[in-house]
Amino acid sequence: MLNTLTRFIVSKVGRKCSLNYSPSIERCGAKSLSYCNHNNRLSSVLSRRSNFIAQDRLTTATEFSLSVKMAATWSMGPGTLEVPLSLFATNRRRLAEKLKPGQVVVLQGGEDINHYDTDVQYVFRQEAYFIWLSGVREPGCYFALDVGTGKGHLFVPRLPEEYEVWMGKLLSCNQFKNIYGVDEVHYVDELRNVLKSLNPDVLLTLSGPNTDSGLTAKEAVFEGIDEFKVNNEILFPIIAELRVIKTPAEIEVMRYVCKISSDAHKQVMLHTKPGLMEYQCESVFLDHCYRVGGCRHVSYTCICGSGDNAATLHYGHAAAPNTKLIQNGDMCLFDMGGNYAGYAADITCSFPANGKFTEDQKLIYEAVLFARDAVIKEAKPGVMWTDMHLTANRAMLEHLKKGGLLKGDVEEMIKNGVNGILQPHGLGHLLGLDVHDVGGYLPHCPPRPEGPLARLRTARRLQPGMLLTVEPGCYFIPRLLDGAKNNPSQAQFFNWDVVDKYRGFGGVRIEDDVLITEEGVENFTFVPRTVAEIEDFMANGANFK
Ligand SMILES: [Mn+2]
């Protein structure tokens, strides 16, 4: 929550870059600054309000004293990764290479969003395509890439002088240019005129389906766009595909955020014990990611399920906010990932709360680990992700059969959907700027499978440079078990006297973040994984490297 002073400031001036002027500004002056999300109206409204507008102080003494050296990198300070701004320039170059001179890409960045009818805003996270192209972290911006010249043009909101009193120094265009390492910076109210001066044949805007959310990418809109020829179909499949294959610089950021997230998970394991609340473990993760790793955000709501909560796949949301007391004998399933420079980690550790596996826990855990190992061993370029899913399922079912939970032929189990009872989710997903990253089902890729594999977030053939999660799991979900028990074609494969003992057990998930290399996979996750490693680490702390 914002404190009172900050709320007052926000009520006076608004958050940087989300500023917009309500029509009532003429009557009320600066106090009527508001946050309506109509940035496309910004230019015309602002141009009529010149008395409120800070001038571009490019030539003033203040500008001179504020000038900063051209930054080559961005970081969160000592000990955190220096991300080269060339990472984003490389992304722009890769995109320009796929397009034609005369085309100008126009993206609109994210905007601040208010909580209902108050002046408090949701924590801002930049829209992922916009970060990919620009590296820009703040709201209210546009970005244009002129394919013919290869130049990137950033457009920032023109902010009122009052901003400087409440929110911090007003930066000139030149300073933005230095901070983000882009070729040109202008104000948003200059967007139309600058684009006109580029004399484009066509503007390319972003519009396409996100196959995970079911939502459509937010297409750029601005005043005057109807004066241009606009195509909103060319860009989406090209830029989404470029995001799937990571560059060496992106891979370094992913390696870093996965390492920080791994270390944070290890801190959680050392801290966890019966008698703590689940959210106290969550807070250890958040603390390490931010305090040590400079991760201002995590990539998704932390899932900290203990005991039977571990069978709730996306536990941790507002209706189930990690508020159970951890009991002796519980398994913990903690799925958490930091976010650095926009890039996401997504790691799950499962372990006994008291640091020592029971025989029952060991059986389920090792079945899942066996599945993970099978995938890590077989995944390489050319392999279908759907086949990896089934490889994991087979390995797990074999192990559970050996352990006495299941009986019969494993292939018959899969034909009858037993794998989907115990692991209702897909093996894993693409990972990058979004935790469920884009590009799973692009037009040139295999379509979403029918039937039991439909839950997979991609059915693609693996290629070097892809980053994916490998996250097999085994859960005892009452609703699904009851369904299987009442379905003779599935019920026949379960030893119900054994399986019913596991009701209330929860579940196990093991989730690694891996890079597909020329030879196979490189695992970016460094946490204790075997039963022996986990027990030793939880008992003796720092032994695990
Ligand atoms: Mn995941």
Automatic annotation (TrEMBL):
Cofactors, names only: Mn(2+)
Annotated keywords: Dipeptidase, Hydrolase, Manganese, Metal-binding, Metalloprotease, Protease
Top enzyme class: hydrolase
EC numbers: 3.4.13.9
Catalytic activity reported: Xaa-L-Pro dipeptide + H2O = an L-alpha-amino acid + L-proline
One Pfam family hit: Peptidase_M24
PANTHER family: PEPTIDASE D, PTHR48480
Subunit structure: Homodimer.
Family: Belongs to the peptidase M24B family. Eukaryotic-type prolidase subfamily.
Name by which UniProt lists this protein: Xaa-Pro dipeptidase
Source organism of the structure: Loxostege sticticalis
